[in-house]
Specification:
Layout (H helix, E strand, L loop, with lengths): L9 H4 L8 H15 L10 H15 L2 H9 L31 H66 L2 H6 L5 H179 L13 H11 L6 E9 L6 E9 L5 E2 L1 H10 L5
Antiparallel strand pairs: 1-2, 2-3
């Protein structure tokens, strides 16, 4: 199996524990990818390398097979804690002095440190490969030892089983039932015992040889680990020196970037102020137009209300004139009805007197088509034929209306043509419908 060619602490890169679940790995990767993307860190010259390292860590730990191989060599990788991002210093006002480029001495020192770090990485990687081979040999040796131990245990159990069977055949139970062992079975049992003893000797010798090999492998692994630790210590020291040199170079580069950013910020601020002023004027114009529209709408509403009130007054005047005209017509009708009633009563009185005179003389009155009917007959038929258009006489107050059967606090009226009594409301209904008693 090929060794894992990594020297970085991927768990520290993803800011997780070694026993973290897949969902935790994915969540931390998404969060850190958004924060460490090179587009969001233009001032960090190592942003691309950090982002690539983050992607490598995620691709390794997200795959179970690669993570298993990585965990096998994880304890030989120097453990690091995630470095907190430095807080950006407050921006200084732009200076007219142009930024100074990094000196050739600084660049040469950085390149030399990078070369040394690359050499140390290669040496550590080679040692890790050799150590991985020894680890693989150790695993194979452990498997062989386990296999030998299992074979010895199996032989012991077989010998114990044969001994128990031999004891059972030699007891009194076998004597009672006469279960004698055949010669073939006896030879087979002895042959198995011989084979077990031979195999046991071979397995014990093999186990001893494997244990000696395991001791040598463990000694070589310890030597590799010690050399790797020394090289990593040297690498850390060189890395510190390289970071110091890079930090100085970055500081010089950041000066120019900060000045340029300050100029861009000033220009952006001026543009935002101009944009805000344009929007303010536009908003004021919109507000003025809306105010004028609101005034026009209010004026229209006021005019519409005045027009509506004038129309209502006109309709009220028309209704009042109509009621006056109806009252005049009603008064004329009542006068005509009163005159007709007086004439009718006079005719009835004349007929009654004539009837009395005829009765006194013993003569029966003859009925003709043109003669008036008797009062009794008229009263019987009047309720059905009366249209209640005639005169209604006012009667006693505070009575129950015989039409709606409600208590009437006003006067009760009686139709003189049919003797129907009703309250004012029912009287108006009877006049309009022309029906009789209900």
């Amino acid at each position: 199996m090929a060794p894992v060619q990594v020297t970085d602490d991927y768990y520290a890169v993803l800011e997780i524990n070694q026993d973290a679940k897949i969902d935790v790995i994915k969540a931390n990767y998404k969060r850190l990818a958004r924060a460490r993307h090179p587009d969001k860190n233009p001032g960090n010259p190592n942003a691309t390398a950090e982002f690539q390292l983050l992607q490598a860590a995620y691709s390794t730990l997200n795959d179970e097979a690669q993570r298993s191989d990585y965990d096998r060599y994880y304890r030989y990788i120097p453990k690091t804690k995630p470095q907190p991002r430095p807080t950006p210093a407050p921006q200084k006002p732009p200076s007219s002095t142009p930024p100074q480029p990094p000196s050739s001495t600084d660049l040469a020192e950085i390149e030399a440190l990078k070369t040394l770090a690359s050499t140390l990485d290669k040496s550590i990687f080679d040692l890790q490969g050799k150590k991985a081979q020894e680890d693989s040999l150790r695993i194979d040796t452990m498997r062989a030892l386990t296999k030998c131990a299992a074979a010895l245990e199996r032989m012991r159990l077989e010998a114990l089983k044969d001994a128990q069977e031999e004891a059972a055949r030699s007891g009194w139970f076998a004597y009672i039932y006469a279960t004698a062992e055949t010669e073939e079975r006896k030879e087979a049992r002895q042959r198995r015992a011989t084979e077990r003893n031979t195999g046991k000797m071979v397995r014990e010798a093999e186990e001893k040889k494997l244990r000696v090999r395991m001791e040598g492998i463990q000694a070589r692994i310890s030597g590799f680990e010690e050399r790797i630790a020394q090289m990593r210590k040297q690498k850390r020291e060189e890395e510190i020196r390289k970071r110091e040199a890079e930090r100085e170079e970055i500081m010089k580069r950041n000066e120019a970037r900060k000045r340029e950013e300050a100029r861009r910020e000033d220009r952006k601020k001026r543009e935002e102020e101009e944009h805000g002023e344009r929007w303010r004027r536009y908003y004021e114009e919109i507000c003025r137009q809306e105010e004028e529209k609101e005034k026009c709408r209010a004026e229209g509403v006021r005019r519409e209300a005045e027009k509506k009130r004038a129309e209502e007054v006109r309709r009220e005047m028309e209704m009042r004139d109509l009621k006056i005209q109806q009252a005049i017509l009603e008064a004329d009708r009542l006068r005509r009805e009163a005159a007709e009633e007086s004439a009718r009563k006079a005719a009835e009185e004349s007929a009654r007197k004539a009837a009395e005179e005829s009765a006194a003389k013993g003569a029966e009155p003859r009925e003709t088509n043109g003669a008036p009917r008797q009062p009794a007959e008229r009263s019987r038929e009047s309720n059905q034929d009366c249209e209640h258009k005639g005169w209604w006489e006012k009667e006693a107050d505070c009575q129950v209306c015989p039409q709606c059967h409600r208590y009437n606090k006003w006067a009760t009226f009686r139709c003189r043509d049919c003797d129907v009594r009703a309250c004012p409301k029912c009287r108006d209904v009877l006049r309009g419908s022309g029906t009789g008693d209900s």
